Amino acid sequence: MKRLAEQGRLVLCGPFADRTGGMTVIRAASLAEAEAVAAADPLVASGMEDCEIREWIITGGEGRPLEGH
Questions:
Q1: What range does the record give for the signal peptide (predicted)?
Q2: Structural domain boundaries of the chain?
Q3: What are residue 13's DSSP bridge partners?
Q4: What's the predicted TM-score (pTM) here?
Q5: I need a surface site. Which of 11, 18, 23, 44 has the fewest CB within 10 A?
Q6: Is the predicted pLDDT of residue 8 greater than 80, yes or no?
């Protein structure tokens, strides 16, 4: 996570309240880039954790994309 934060890719992360897993949101230019980031994660690469990648369309409070997205 520190590496992702230093690269400016980390948006947010944390565990679910019921401790059944967690979520990490990153900035990526493409699905391939997001897959490469996930594959480089030591826990994912070792098979200790799995990863589901989903595109998320960020919208503002009125359904408009936020500036810069």
A1: none
A2: 1-69
A3: 24
A4: 0.74
A5: 18
A6: yes
